[in-house]
């Protein structure tokens, strides 16, 4: 699913946070993050950064995600103007960094669907 050029983070060793700002993280995302704890690299026609679990609360506080995108958590970005996230009901999405709920584009209901959709979105 990921190209060889994508560099994964080290497996997560800390106590796993299951929620950010009161939003539960999906089980498939938690399984992925426990194994890789983020990563970054070229993926399809774009660059993808998946934030480490221990940075999610700070990232979401900095973007005021709870206020702007209630029920959502930002989990990554493209290193430029696009962010990636997940809703409390497990739908993955992208949104411009200047966020507005009307700008969300849904990209799947599982981590695998999300990664495939990110690749398709930019190719």
User: What is the helix content?
Assistant: 25-40%
Question: How many angstroms separate the termini?
Answer: 15 Å
Strand order of the largest sheet: 1-4-5-6-7-8-9
- CATH top level is Alpha Beta
What structural class do the secondary elements suggest? alpha+beta
Describe the global form.
globular
Main β sheet profile:
7 strands, antiparallel
Tell me the number of helical segments per DSSP (H or I, 4 or more residues long): 4
How many separate structural domains? 1
Average pLDDT level: 92
> What would CATH call the homologous superfamily?
SMI1/KNR4-like
* Order of H and E elements: EEEHEEHHEEEEH
CATH architecture assignment: 3-Layer(aba) Sandwich
Concise account of the structure shown:
This protein is of the alpha+beta class and 123 residues long.
């Amino acid at each position: 699913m990921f190209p060889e050029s994508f560099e994964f983070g080290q497996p997560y060793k800390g106590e796993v946070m299951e929620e950010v700002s009161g939003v539960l993280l999906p089980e498939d995302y938690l399984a992925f993050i426990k194994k890789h704890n983020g990563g970054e690299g070229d993926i399809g026609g774009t660059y993808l950064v998946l934030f480490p679990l221990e940075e999610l609360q700070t990232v979401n506080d900095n973007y005021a995600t709870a206020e702007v995108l209630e029920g959502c958590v930002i989990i990554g970005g493209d290193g430029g103007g696009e962010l990636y996230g997940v809703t409390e009901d497990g739908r993955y999405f992208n949104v411009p960094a200047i966020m507005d709920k009307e700008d969300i584009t849904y990209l799947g209901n599982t981590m695998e669907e999300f990664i495939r959709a990110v690749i398709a979105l930019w190719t």
